[in-house]
């Protein structure tokens, strides 16, 4: 069947059609849906319903998969790499691209959402009488005849384009306020056209910096000259390269030259022949449902608004028709058909509803597109789509002979070509499809951290992106939280993201109170000499390296930190009018003297004439006598600073005895109290670290972060860290078992990305969901309980939430970041043959022959 290519010209987000109409197209960013409570889903539903109630213009909704080349995405990120490890980062990105292509194929799929609105005809510059209108109608008729015969080319008046732009701005206000959509650009419209000729084949190539060509003429019109554009029709047709074979009748064969070879793709178009009168919401989101399939599906929905009076008239006419059928059946002695009886009841209910609500009806047609590389796979996919819609009581047809017409309906600016499958819907029925709901996660660029969804969509993040003011993000906080019970994967994922941040040009300080990262110097061979393991011991050369007066050159900063440490150890509160002034005075006296240190503060108290002061000094001495206390109780002689010149720095303190995270503070012993107190100068040291070069993204990773956050002094320091981090281009990564540590509003609002691993405690689940701004529904709670090792609920900087399977891709990284104790593998005779770490339960380790540059693929 021959039909005219519908697009005459496009500019900006405006598409001018051959029939004289003009469409404006917008893109929705997509919104989180799966983990919302019913009332939150209802809020989104109400917004979409209000849009279709109020728009009163024809619309074209498109849900289309975007096949993103893994290689292309990695190449783009490679252009942004910098720093001393750039060469290693490029090599890692190349290796990662090859591994991902093995796992997921060369193309990753994500859904994009577009809506086109047919703009109202702009009013003429001056009013015309009947004869002028007749003259213009005749001129338009002659133009159409000339265009059809090839004797003339279509033209667009320049002033008309400007008036359409003004009309578009008015429409944009409605689209953006209800759907949060933004205008597309010319490259996107080009892609929306060209991609149709690459279904089942691959990624459509884009012509960079290309716009449709036109010529400019000046023409006599009414009383003066006007500027007229003549679009070069064949220039737009350049975007339709390829051959379409409609001989199968119920599908199309797309023939295309792709990457130098002739390739075939197969595509079938399915139409919705019947929509159930009542659709359950939430539960039957008929547009969102395609994202639960393991292959991509496209949707095109065209709507026309029928205002209330016309809708009532149409319903009453239908009522008369059904009544006549009922009467005819009785007159001929036959029983009235059940469909007629049910139809009369439904029409009566609809008439009453229309009279009461004053709502319009939406004249809707729905077409689905399914593509595959071969005919057998196409048939399987079509059957799967039919089954999933028939389960919701939708009737799906694969029309014979109309496939080419359906193909053209997906083009922007086209009209409705297939008119046999039109439905009159309430705005609520259209809204119930949940147009714009997405399972997409991450930033879409940066480095790979894992996969999500049934399609195993790759998840990419760029840790410093939040502070760049990207439109659509819900936060500008660079800090992140890693939560969950033991063994779930929180330490592994935080280590992986910190490593990748350093590889990409950043710097990192890792606070390792348990000494689990001492192997990094050897195992992270890609980093070479840029790994610095700082192990603070009981040796004399380490004395005082964490003393507040050694860390801070600013006396006021040193005094504040000294008081934080000593008040925590002694339990002296700010409102203790007897002891707190004495402690403050001792710190100030020492600070004003030569070579200040905490040991001198203790001695100042011990030598006091006041009994309460001497008791404070004795209390402090009980801590100073512990083996590793010399790190914080300096003697004023050793002022050697800790060097952080390398890209990755790991700060370890030997012999720390951190209590269990659920142990109340009043039950801490001396060693545990001092161990917690040691985290205060470390936190302050981290604050000093992030105040370096703002041009470099910095990460401070706090393992066992609860040990800092559980004290008022530590919580205050942590809040200062995240606030300073946002302005100093630094992200603070908190790894903790207790989400309650981060629920303080000052802290919660400054956390960007959140990674929540498995948790089984009901109270902890409630806290985690609160931190993620999710309601404590049974679905959300059960999802957290049932996460596997290496899986987490991930909330990105756009506020979207989904389950991500963290994947390090390579065995050397898996071994380096695995914090579990080594397992001994034994032979049947009981002899130990190796101490290598075993893969996490439920995850697959690739064979040794699938290696690249001595890296082995591992699913984490």
UniProtKB/TrEMBL annotation:
Name this protein carries in UniProt: ATP/GTP-binding protein
Keyword terms of this UniProt record: Plasmid
Chain segments annotated as coiled-coil in the UniProt record: none
Lineage summary: Bacteria, Bacillati, Bacillota, Bacilli, Bacillales
Positions with biased composition (Basic and acidic residues): 838-860
Native organism: Bacillus methanolicus (strain MGA3 / ATCC 53907)
Record-linked Pfam families: AAA_10
Segments for region (Disordered): 828-860
Origin superkingdom: Bacteria
InterPro entries linked: ATPase_SAG2001_prd, P-loop_NTPase, T4SS_component
């Amino acid at each position: 069947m021959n039909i005219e290519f519908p697009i005459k010209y496009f500019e900006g987000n405006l598409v001018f059609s051959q029939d004289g109409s003009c469409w404006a197209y917008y893109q929705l960013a997509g919104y989180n849906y799966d983990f919302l409570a019913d009332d939150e889903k209802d809020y989104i539903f109400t917004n979409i319903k209000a849009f279709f109630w109020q728009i009163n213009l024809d619309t074209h909704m498109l849900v289309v998969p975007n096949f993103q080349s893994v290689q292309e995405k990695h190449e783009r990120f490679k252009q942004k790499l910098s720093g001393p490890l750039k060469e290693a980062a490029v090599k890692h990105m190349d290796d990662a691209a090859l591994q991902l292509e093995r796992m997921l194929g060369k193309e990753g799929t994500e859904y994009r959402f577009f809506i086109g609105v047919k703009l109202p005809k702009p009013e003429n510059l001056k009013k015309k009488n009947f004869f002028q209108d007749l003259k213009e109608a005749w001129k338009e008729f002659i133009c159409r005849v000339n265009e059809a015969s090839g004797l003339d080319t279509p033209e667009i008046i320049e002033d008309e384009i400007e008036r359409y732009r003004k009309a578009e701005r008015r429409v944009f206000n409605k689209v953006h306020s209800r759907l949060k959509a933004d205008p597309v650009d010319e490259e996107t419209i080009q892609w929306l056209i060209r991609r149709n000729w690459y279904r089942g084949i691959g990624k459509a190539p884009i012509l960079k910096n290309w716009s449709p060509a036109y010529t400019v003429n000046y023409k006599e019109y009414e009383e003066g000259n006007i500027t007229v554009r003549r679009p070069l029709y064949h220039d737009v047709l350049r975007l339709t390269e390829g051959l379409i074979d409609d001989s199968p009748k119920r599908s199309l064969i797309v023939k295309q030259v792709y990457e130098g070879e002739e390739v075939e793709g197969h595509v079938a178009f399915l139409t919705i022949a019947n929509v159930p009168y009542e659709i359950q919401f939430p539960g039957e989101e008929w547009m969102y449902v395609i994202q639960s399939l393991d292959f991509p599906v496209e949707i095109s929905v065209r709507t026309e608004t029928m205002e209330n009076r016309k809708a009532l008239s149409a319903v009453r006419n239908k009522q008369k028709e059904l009544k006549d059928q009922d009467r005819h059946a009785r007159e001929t002695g036959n029983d009235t058909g059940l469909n007629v009886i049910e139809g009369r009841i439904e029409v009566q209910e609809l008439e009453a509803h229309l009279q009461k609500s004053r709502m319009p009806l939406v004249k809707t047609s729905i077409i689905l597109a399914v593509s595959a590389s071969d005919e057998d796979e196409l048939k399987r996919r079509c059957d799967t789509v039919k089954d999933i819609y028939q389960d919701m009581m939708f009737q799906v047809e694969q029309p014979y002979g109309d496939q080419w017409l359906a193909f053209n309906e997906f083009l922007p600016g086209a009209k409705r070509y297939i008119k046999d499958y039109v439905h009159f819907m309430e705005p609520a029925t259209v809204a119930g499809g949940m147009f714009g709901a997405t399972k997409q996660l991450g930033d879409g660029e940066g480095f790979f951290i894992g996969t999500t969804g049934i399609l195993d969509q790759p998840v990419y993040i760029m840790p410093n992106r939040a502070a760049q003011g990207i439109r659509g993000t819900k936060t500008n906080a660079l800090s992140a939280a890693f939560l969950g019970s033991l063994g779930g994967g929180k330490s592994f994922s935080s280590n992986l993201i910190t490593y990748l941040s350093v590889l990409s040009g950043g710097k990192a300080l890792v606070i390792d109170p348990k000494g689990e990262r001492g192997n990094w110097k050897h195992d992270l061979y890609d980093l070479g000499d840029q790994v610095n393991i700082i192990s603070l011991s009981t040796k004399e050369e380490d004395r005082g390296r964490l003393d507040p007066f050694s860390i801070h050159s600013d006396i006021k900063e040193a005094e504040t930190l000294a008081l934080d440490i000593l008040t925590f150890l002694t339990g002296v509160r700010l409102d203790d009018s007897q002891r707190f002034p004495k402690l403050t005075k001792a710190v100030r006296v020492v600070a004003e003297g030569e070579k200040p240190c905490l040991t001198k503060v203790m001695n100042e108290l011990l030598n006091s004439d006041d009994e309460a002061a001497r008791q404070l000094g004795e209390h402090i001495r009980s801590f100073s006598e512990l083996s590793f206390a010399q790190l914080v109780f300096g003697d004023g002689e050793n002022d050697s600073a800790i060097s952080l010149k390398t890209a990755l720095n790991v700060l370890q303190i030997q012999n720390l005895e951190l209590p269990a995270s659920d142990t109340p503070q009043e039950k801490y012993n001396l060693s545990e109290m001092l161990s917690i107190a040691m985290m205060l100068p470390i936190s302050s040291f981290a604050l000093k670290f992030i105040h370096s070069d703002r041009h470099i993204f910095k990460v401070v990773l706090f393992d066992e972060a609860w040990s800092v956050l559980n004290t008022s002094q530590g919580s205050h320091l942590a809040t200062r860290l995240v606030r300073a981090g946002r302005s100093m281009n630094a992200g603070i990564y908190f790894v903790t078992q207790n989400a309650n540590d981060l629920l303080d509003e000052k802290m919660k609002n400054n956390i960007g990305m959140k990674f929540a691993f498995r948790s089984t405690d009901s109270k902890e689940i409630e806290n985690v969901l609160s931190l993620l701004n999710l309601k404590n529904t049974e679905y959300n709670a059960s999802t957290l309980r049932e996460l596997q090792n290496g899986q987490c609920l991930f909330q990105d900087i756009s506020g979207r939430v989904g389950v991500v399977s963290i994947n390090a891709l390579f065995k050397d990284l898996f071994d380096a970041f695995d914090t579990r104790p080594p397992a001994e593998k034994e032979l049947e005779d009981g002899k130990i043959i190796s101490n290598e770490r075993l893969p996490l339960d439920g995850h697959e380790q690739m064979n040794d022959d699938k290696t690249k540059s001595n890296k082995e693929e591992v699913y984490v």
